[in-house]
Amino acid sequence: MGNESRRLLLLVIFLLAIQLRVNSVFGICEHSFLDGNKLYNFTLASPLPSFPHGVLSEDGFYKVAVNETVLWFQLCGGMIFNHNPPKCAECSDCGGPSRCGMECSALVAESAGGYHVCTTIGHVSSTDVSILDELNPFKGVIVRMSSSGKEHNCSLSVSLLCDSTGAQGPDSMEKLGTCEYATTLRHPSACATIIPIHGNGLGWFGTLLLVIICLFGAYMLAGTVYRYYFLRVHGIEAIPNLDFWVSLPLRTQMYVSSLVRQFRGPSASQGGSYSQVNF
């Protein structure tokens, strides 16, 4: 393989890797909710005029601190620390001490004996998006991240509230269980795009027509199989009631012509006329 072919192959692999990464982020950050004839579509990573990365933090992470507990997380992607990275005694499943926080989507640090112990509570691969309130789809969505460890299972639930005026928070954090955390964030990306759906379904007439067509097809198939294998009728003659189907177009034409004559009435050429008779 020549150098040009190798370069082309590497370029194709690189572009495919980028495409897979982009598709995975957008797939994680999308959620649709059908309510009647309306489709509520949430695309959290779609760019907005004031937020080119959607709900993703441009800093590479969100941070909230309450008392001796610090929470870092990124929505719909892994965290990136260009400044002020977490300093933890343990960070084995999220990048290690030198790259702590770089290989997970949510990390919590709690003070223990004068130093911070970090616990991974979320990964990008285990991110799930669901509707916040089915009775009020305009309210927003919940982004839930989870992480399974040797000692316990952890999770972070971020309530994304729809706010078209701008982004706010997170300002608070709540510990729901042994290793379960929750926080709230207001963002325009949490506002649904409403897509009206018209004419969904076949309706009663379309359903009835489909049933009739299916029954007719089943009748023709069963009749043909019976005549072919049991009555030993081969060729086109195996079709049941072939004479009736062949004459059906002519019968239909005659019936339509009869109806037309009835509605038109007697034509002028067929009307009564008198001719002069010479005696």
UniProtKB/TrEMBL annotation:
<keyword id="KW-0812">Transmembrane</keyword>
<protein>
    <recommendedName>
        <fullName>Autophagy-related protein 27</fullName>
    </recommendedName>
</protein>
<dbReference type="InterPro" id="IPR018939">
    <property type="entry name" value="Autophagy-rel_prot_27"/>
</dbReference>
<keyword id="KW-0732">Signal</keyword>
<feature type="signal peptide">
    <location>
        <begin position="1"/>
        <end position="24"/>
    </location>
</feature>
<dbReference type="Pfam" id="PF09451">
    <property type="entry name" value="ATG27"/>
</dbReference>
<keyword id="KW-1133">Transmembrane helix</keyword>
<feature type="transmembrane region" description="Helical">
    <location>
        <begin position="201"/>
        <end position="222"/>
    </location>
</feature>
<dbReference type="GO" id="GO:0000139">
    <property type="term" value="C:Golgi membrane"/>
</dbReference>
<keyword id="KW-0472">Membrane</keyword>
